[in-house]
Amino acid sequence: MAQWLQLQKLDSRYLEQVDQLYDDSFPMDIRQYLSRWIESIDWDTVAVQDSLATVRFHNLLVQLDDQHSRFALENNFLLQHNIRKIRRNLQDRFQEDPVHMAMIISRNLKEEKKILEKVKMTEQEAQGTVSAMVVEKQKLDNKVKDMKDRAQVADQNIKNLEELQDEYDFKVNTLKSRGNEVNGMTAKELEQEKMTVGRMCLELKAKRQDVVMQLTELLNVAQALLSDLISEELPEWRQRQQIACIGGPPNACVDQLQNWFTSVAESLQQVRQNLKKLQELEQKFTYDSDPIPQKKAYLEARALDLLKNLLSNSLVVERQPCMPTHPQRPLVLKTSVQFTVKLRFLVKMQEFNYQLKVKAMFDKDMTEKKGFRKFNILGTNTKVMNMEESNGSLVAEFRHLQLKEQKVAGNKTNEGPLIVTEELHSLSFESELQLNQSGLNIKLEAISLPVVVISNVCQLPSGWASILWYNMLTTEPKKLKFFLNPPTAKWSQLSEVLSWQFSAVTQRGLNQEQLHMLADKLLGARAHRNPEGEIPWIKFCKQQSANEKAFPFWLWIEGILDLIKRHLLSLWNDGSIMGFLSKEKEKALLSTKCPGTFLLRFSERSREGAITFTWVEHDVHDKPLFHSVEPYTKKDLGAVSLPNIIRTYKVMAAENIPENPLRFLYPDVPKDKAFGKYCPEPSEAPEPMDVENVPDKFSYLKTVLISVSEVHPSKLQDNMMPMSPGGYNTLCQDVSPEEMNAASADI
To answer: How far apart are CA 29 and CA 31, in angstroms?
Structure first.
């Protein structure tokens, strides 16, 4: 079965995870309309080949044109309009960078597979041991079911009470009318009828007492359930959302939370309706010690208080503020760039549709602080909440908000206690809800997680570091002075978050060996990778020494992440890149391997991200010797892919024939087997464009870019770093081959 069809059959909680994969950059409409075509393409390969990505991009546009034609035949004007708009947006976004589109599709298909695998695993686990969390949620489901059952029983008993009271009224009136008749009942019949009416009166009083007790118990159950939702489930959901924002597991339980909130609200509304019905019954018939007038006011006030408490906690930020241009970096906003944010009202009831007008405000509760920047919020900052067509949820999505910094009179800049990327700001939302027939207004408020506001995209990595640190260490949404005295992080916390940064953009997080290297880098070898070892904020994200070449740990990681996304995604995903390991560990791994065994690791000296490979040789005494090539940067890999560099790499030693020293990818994978799939055979040379003035037998000579390191033969067994292609080309510009040979002869 096609993957997209399988996804559409999943429960809503999984469909919500699918929904989070798609946004305006690549809308779900394309996935729906072109599902078969999309799944027929190997997007992993497309994402690493610029020319193929360009072809597939234009193929996709053709597919959209075909879909537009089908809508035209159906006279569906709205869908025609949507397809045209989607096509224009794709061209604007990906015309110059089709590889980016291929990477998005590749990532989404893989994430969809993960969701399907998770569903399968969940179904298998359900047959065995059920996790503690599932048990707790099941308990809550059972409580909700118990509350709804009680509400249904109380409702039915009130209907029975109404019928009994009507029958009692009829009996009483009949008895009075027949007792006044001249030829009425005998004394004995009259006495029997009075006894029947008396029994009915006792039954009526007992049922009234029972109904009032049932409503009281129902409110007790609702109050306990409400306490669980507001004190435990809602904070836990918000904490899961924090984790999801910084790359952790997706937070996909808001629908379940909405079902619980809605069930409690419906039961409380049912209680209020039942109390009105009891008031009507009381007006028709009452007596001394009648429980309805004694308890009704108390029960009404209690039900209303519980409902107000529930509703005032029902407005949540479902999707945190995020720039569509950087969907994997939420909570970092750039001035004058649009961002989106989505709210949901957890009580899904038709009577609230179009009743809530939400207003967005920036830094509403922030006290005056000298030096802190101030911003105006631009765009449509008010939205009316309405029910989504897909699931009926009551939502408001702000899509075109922007921030503009307020100018400070007399000063060009604000010099505050914190740098720009450490300033935390808040986006809050307010609304009012009027309860029908109660005359009461309930103020609703929601607040986003703290955001960082940048003015230049180069500040994005540092801003994201602040978001990581905050959400890793605190769950308080209003702790905006956090970085005045930032707490330290334990390695056990930071290691998990670092791994999430890689798994969020690739298929692989960091394994224990890779994390061990990073632990030694941050904590020092003497710490022995202690999970409780503490890392200060300044060591994670700020300059550590006066050395101009030094750079923060996080910016090094960010450079490597960008390098992987742009040039190494497939190699990283299939495990070809060892990545993070020290030079000592590198030598230990290679020393016992056969000559020509090599591994790939990231350079520790490049802030922008670079990768190198090291191979082992053995001298005449069988002593291992190691050679590392000068690291390849993004610029180098933009010209030639790393698999092609490895396939064609040569070491040139004077008059010797150039040889490729790379034979096996660690531990013992033949080079061609490891990288052959990433090095397609070159296609035939294209025909020249000007065919009129070209001889019949004209053809271009094929060219191949080859990476070469020039090394003197006597140095091949020395621990020497060969030159990169860029270094060798620079040398050739300054020194002639004759001069290089002469210099080599003198050595």
So the answer is: 5
Mean pLDDT of the chain: 83
CB 652 within 8 A of CB 710: yes
How many whole angstroms separate alpha carbon 389 and alpha carbon 252?
19
Q: What is the DSSP string of 217-238?
A: HHHHHHHHHHHHIIIIIHHHHH
For the segment 674-697, the average pLDDT, to the nearest whole number, is 61
Structure tokens at 258: 């909405």
Strand 650-652 to 708-710 pairing: parallel
At 416, give phi and psi (nearest 5°): -105, 180
In three-state secondary structure terms, 396 is strand
Residue 86's CB is within 10 A of a number of other CB atoms, namely 19
Quickly count helices (H) and strands (E) in the chain.
25, 20
Amino acid type, 566: R
Strands 382-384 and 315-322: unpaired
For residue range 563-595, list pLDDT tens digits in order: 999 999 999 988 899 889 888 888 888 988 888
8 A C-beta contact, residue 385 and residue 444: no
Tokens of 263: 């069930």
DSSP state of 568: I
Stretch 596-612: mean pLDDT: 91
Q: Please confirm whether the linkage preceding 667 is cis (ω < 30° from 0).
A: yes
Give the Cα separation of 460 and 483 in Å (integer). 17
Q: Residue 154, Cβ neighbours under 10 Å: how many?
A: 23
With 50 as the cut, is the pLDDT of residue 162 above it? yes
- State the angle between helix axes of 291-312 and 254-284 in degrees (0 to 180), rounded to the nearest 10: 160
pLDDT of 686 > 60? The answer is: no
Q: What pLDDT score was predicted for residue 193? A: 72
325 has a pLDDT exceeding 70 = yes
Q: Report percent pLDDT > 90 for the chain.
A: 38
CB atoms within 10 A of CB 700: 9
According to DSSP, residue 421 is labeled G
244: nearest Cα among 156, 319, 154: 319
The pairing of beta strand 339-345 with beta strand 394-405: antiparallel
**pLDDT at 416 > cutoff 90:** no
Length of the chain: 747
The mean pLDDT of 136-158, rounded to a whole number, is 89
Q: For residue 616, give the DSSP letter.
A: E
Determine the distance from the C-alpha atom of residue 731 to the mean position of all C-alpha atoms in its chain, rounded to a whole number. Answer: 48
Q: What is the pLDDT of residue 6?
A: 87
Query: Is the peptide bond prior to 695 cis by the omega test (within 30 degrees of 0)?
Result: no
pLDDT in tens, 66-94: 888 888 888 888 788 888 888 998 988 89
| Beta bridge partner(s), residue 78 | none
What is the pLDDT at residue 81? Answer: 86
CA angle 728, 733, 734 (to 5 degrees): 100
Q: What is the identity of the amino acid at 171? A: K
**Burial class of 714 by CB neighbour count within 10 A (0 to 12, 13 to 18, 19+):** exposed
Alpha-carbon torsion angle 224, 230, 234, 236, nearest 10: -70
Of residues 415, 446, 448, 416, the one with CA closest to residue 433:
446
- Are 596 and 644 in contact, with CB atoms under 8 Å apart? no
Selected residue with higher pLDDT from 189 and 616: 616
Q: Looking up tokens 């890999």, which residue turns up?
A: 637
Q: Are 109 and 225 within 8 A, CB to CB? A: no
Q: Write out the H or E segment, with its range, that includes residue 52.
A: helix 50-73
Q: Residue 173: exposed, middle, or buried by beta-carbon count in 10 A (0-12, 13-18, 19+)?
A: exposed
Round to whole Å and give the CA distance between 38 and 108. 11
Residues near 429 by Cβ (< 8 Å), separated by ≥ 6? Answer: 315, 317, 343, 358, 359, 360, 361, 445, 446, 447
d(CA 109, CA 111): 5
Alpha helices by DSSP H, listed for 347-490, are: 460-473
Distance, CA of 48 to CA of 44 (rounded, Å): 7
Place of tokens 């984790």: 243
